[in-house]
Amino acid sequence: MKSVEFTFELALVTIRRFVADYALSPGQVGRMRMAGVIRTAGRFGLIDPPEDWLVFRQRRNATSHEYFDEDSTLHIIGVAPELYDSVNSLLNSLREKME
Fold first, then answer.
1. Nearest CA to 14 among 63, 59, 2, 34?
2. Model-level pTM?
């Protein structure tokens, strides 16, 4: 459970930094909500589809604000395979854009 959350949070930080450094100015990104950063990353081809990342974020937010029971744990662990694929895709996109 914690590894899924950690991976997701690290990916979001990476997305925010990329958008600040390569897509928009840091000041613009600093004023954006994370959903806007995710959509911007999608427009710049960093993540695809950005809607998946919004779902991951929604599920992570739901579990972080609830008492952890079996249902909430399964709720976030259930997206682990899709998150794994999306993070791998993010890494590939970063490699391509950094070349």
1. 34
2. 0.83
Coil/strand/helix, residue 49? coil
Only one residue has tokens 């992570």, namely 60
Q: Are 1 and 76 in contact (CB under 8 A)?
A: yes
Cβ-proximal residues to 22 (8 Å cutoff; 6+ apart), any chain: 44, 97
Query: Please, which contacts does 63-66 make with residues 24 or more away whose CB atoms are closer than 8 Å?
Result: 63/5, 64/5
Cis peptide before 49 (omega within 30 of 0): yes
| Angstrom distance (rounded) from CA 53 to CA 39 | 9
In this structure, what DSSP letter does residue 25 have?
-
For 20-55, write each residue's pLDDT tens digit: 998 888 889 989 999 999 999 999 999 999 999 999
CA distance 40 to 19: 7
Nearest to 80 by CA among 3, 12, 10: 3
